[in-house]
Amino acid sequence: MAFPAGCIPGVDVSHYSGVVNWPAAASAGESFAFTKASEGLFTTDPTLSPNWDGAKAAGLLRGAYHLLHPGKSGADQATFFLQQLAAANGGTAQLAPGDLPCVLDIEVADGAPADTIVACATTWLNTVEAATGRTPILYTFASFWIGSVEHVPAFARYPLWIAEYGVPAPKGVPKTWADWTLWQYAEQNVPWAAGNADLDAYKGSLASLQAFAGIVADTGP
To answer: Which residues form a coiled coil (predicted)?
Structure first.
């Protein structure tokens, strides 16, 4: 599949990706990277720190994500995520220029009804936004969202990261959002990682992506 026009390439990784050669990823044209930080209340990802540091050292914009388990406390999951982020980020959960907003990955229901999923996610999103100073990103699959959550107008303020494979452009954007901001379009083996990585596209220019990561453009005197 051809890379979508008008987009900036990036990746997301976790321990499943194994050791990542970030300079090689940058040389391959990747501009940004998200790395898994945590899942639920107890699962950490041992690759968070090396990926967090390595992506920045290689010149990529970086971000971290949490996989939500709606059957657990949203507040406790947010605290757990922020603890992992701070541990990798020099003791603080505050994001710096070059850091992308944090991501809440919503793709499992754990048998919870829609209102429980929404309440759990809302608490996590509010807590992480207050702690980091940035509006978080919401990641999901259209099929999961439509089947388990449906329409949540209040979530339209969160940038959408949609996962949909095998199509030239996302077709299943939930009606909560007018459009997508990030698109995860493939998972595959890459030469710069020991395992598979997810491939992503940011919809916009490099300048707008940098602004999204808190980098203020120098307009000169």
So the answer is: none
What is the predicted pLDDT for the residue at 218?
60
Residue stretches of the chain with pLDDT short of 50: none
Helices (H) and strands (E) in the chain, counts: 6, 9
Question: Residue 84 has which token pair?
Answer: 């992992």
Closest CA to 9 of 65, 61, 66, 57: 61
CB atoms within 10 A of CB 38: 23
Catalytic sites, residue numbers = 12, 105, 107
H or E element at residue 39: strand 32-39
Residue 206 tokens, joined: 């490099």
What does the block give as tokens for 194? Answer: 């020991």
Domains within the chain, CATH numbers bracketed: 8-206 (3.20.20.80)
* Structure-token pair, residue 137: 């990103």
Per-residue pLDDT, 150: 87
